[in-house]
Amino acid sequence: MNINISEEILKIFYTSHNLLAFSGGIDSSALFFILQDYGVFFDIAIVDYKKREQSKEEISYAQSLAKKYHKKCYVLESKTIDSDFEMEARNVRYNFFHKLLLQYDYNALIMAHHFDDKLEWFFMQFCRGAGLNTLLGFQAVESRSVQQHHYYLVRPLISYKKQDLLHYNQTHAIHFFYDKSNADCKYLRNFFRHEILAKLQNFSQGMQQSLEFLSNERELLYPKVIICHDYNLLYCKISDCKGNKHIIHIIDTLSKKMDYVMSKNQKKELHALFSNNMAEYAECVMGDRIIIAKNTTYLFVGLQPKWLMKMCLLENLENQNTFITLPKKIQKIFLQNNQQYFHNQEQSDISKQRKVSIYFRNDNNIPPLCSHASSVVLESPNLKSSYFIQLDSLLKCSVIIPKPHRELYRKAKIPPKIRLILFFNSLDIWG
């Protein structure tokens, strides 16, 4: 049979810088050649969890395909995962993909998920007691964001069954690997796959129609609203929301766009928090990362600026740099509340501990010239000030909003935790 990609998805592929999550299995091997047939340009990324001897062959296969078809192949050798393998492997995988998206400016992440995966997800979440938005995960196209970088997570095979992909591979003589661990029912997903869904194969067409009906009814139950986007802040009008359940649905959707998945308990907390419609505002922080708030006019979902700054700084340091550059315009607000951490010269009390240099530059987009071997700044007329700071102290730094801005936000009844996001965004430093 032919495997077709929708026009909507092809439009994304033809106008994006694409990265395919590859494993060498039935699904991703089929998708590799389907994308080739459609003339889609893409690179591939693969993770070696070092759990099976066969994984070395899978890496070699990925690299040989990339070489033959003139693609980049990114390989990550995972650290040993000792517990909760499925969850930790997913975290490793997506962290790797996100780094590649950021570093090489990919704006479409292509996954080889198929209908069987969608069905497994539905039953797993159904048994855990999930809501409609979670049950109907695995959409064909999802808009996501990671550290200010917006991308599409695309699943072009989501309407096809695994058997369809196997038949495609066999018909086109495509090589692929069987992952023997997929037969091990100690993993929850495999239990559902082999013990439950295997017995329902004769009803797959009916189940597919049921999921489509549920998706259509979700649109009636939770109408779409206009979402405003300001860097790392998403917001909409409260008047567009049809009650508390609709608000939680929107928060859940927007959080996923920022790559954060809320738990069932967190949703319950939000429901209780937002039940008081008479309050001037309500707000909370989820996972020390996502700020959720509302006032009488707007519903807000944003990334904590401190968390975002921390991620950006750690990304720099992971690349073995010993210096970080920041825009000159934030020098005053960055230093005024953190003087105790900064030093104009290397002092003895911090010389024995890991430290970094902070440079404040005039232009957001002009980096300093540096030696990549030593990560030492060599030259830059753009740099005006430099300071030394201990790494642990760097992550403790805070910012105080200037009084004029504080008054402006107070009069507009902006929830306090949202004010810092708005202030950072007003500086236009994210570039």
Walkthrough of the structure:
With 431 residues, this protein is α/β, with parallel strands linked by helices. It has 3 domains: 210 residues, Rossmann fold, CATH 3.40.50; 76 residues, no CATH class; 89 residues, no CATH class. It has 17 helices and 17 strands. The strands form 4 sheets. Strands 3-2-1-4-6-5 form a 6-stranded mixed β-sheet, sandwiched between helices. A hairpin with a 2-residue loop joins strand 7 and strand 8. Helix 2 packs across helix 7 and helix 5 packs across helix 8. 24% of the residues are buried. About 6% of the residues have low confidence. It is found in: Cytoplasm. One of its GO terms (cellular component) is cytoplasm. One of its GO terms (biological process) is tRNA modification. GO terms for molecular function: ATP binding; tRNA(Ile)-lysidine synthase activity. It comes from Helicobacter didelphidarum.
Quick description:
This protein has 17 helices and 17 strands. The chain is an alpha/beta fold and 431 residues long. It holds the Pfam family ATP_bind_3.
Name of the level-1 CATH class of the largest domain: Alpha Beta
Widest sheet, order of strands: 3-2-1-4-6-5
Kindly give the count of domains: 3
First-to-last CA distance: 46 Å
Q: What CATH architecture label of the largest domain applies?
A: 3-Layer(aba) Sandwich
Structural shape: globular
Mean pLDDT: 82
Tell me the number of strands.
17
Structural class: alpha/beta
* Estimated share of beta-strand residues: 15-25%
- In CATH, the topology of the largest domain is named Rossmann fold
Helical proportion, percent range: 40-55%
Continuous helix count:
17
Task: Profile the largest sheet.
Answer: 6 strands, mixed
Low-confidence runs of at least 5 consecutive residues: 346-352, 364-384
Specify the CATH homologous superfamily of the largest domain: HUPs
Instruction: Please tell me how large the radius of gyration is.
Output: 24 Å
